[in-house]
Specification:
Blueprint (H helix, E strand, L loop, with lengths): L1 H35 L3 E9 L7 E7 L2 E6 L11 E6 L14 E6 L7 E4 L11 E6 L4 E7 L1
Antiparallel strand pairs: 1-2, 1-8, 2-3, 3-6, 4-5, 4-7, 7-8
């Protein structure tokens, strides 16, 4: 009689342990697939142009759409008419940017901290080598990050 109880207990323990391992492996798969939805395509560090500018820029893809993300360390000076642009050069000129060499993405949301900008679907990021903070009023590059 004792042997039957031990055998039943052993079977229950084996089944319970097998189910626990299966749940654990499913949890790992879920975490992996969540991470895979935000791969970083490109990244760069902001550097000064006409004004001190710092922080990190990352290009991320989520559900087939690309975004520029500035990290919490992003900071530049306050200025009039600031925009985020994509430029064809690794290091855009400090002043006198030519219209044929850039595309405007959006007005700068704020001069410091995290922010995100959607890239329009018609923009081919491969055609651009940097992201710049640009003052349209004075045609001056406050800072830029090479992609």
């Amino acid at each position: 009689m004792k042997w039957k109880k031990l055998v039943i207990l052993a079977i229950i323990t084996t089944v319970a342990m097998g189910c626990t391992r299966e749940v654990s492996s499913n949890q790992v798969d879920t975490q992996t697939s969540t991470t895979a939805t935000r791969p970083s395509a490109k990244a760069g560090n902001f550097q000064a142009g006409e004004h001190p500018t710092q922080g990190k820029l990352t290009v991320v893809t989520e559900q087939g759409k690309q975004y520029l993300e500035f990290d919490q360390d992003f900071k530049t000076d306050k200025g009039p008419d600031l925009f985020v642009i994509l430029h064809t050069s690794d290091a855009p000129p400090v002043s006198g940017i030519k219209e044929k060499d850039y595309v405007t993405l959006a007005p700068l949301q704020k001069i410091s901290g995290n922010q995100r900008y959607a890239l329009p679907n018609n923009i081919k990021l491969a055609n651009y080598k940097s992201v710049a903070i640009w003052c349209r009023k004075f045609n001056a590059t406050f800072g830029y990050a090479t992609l």
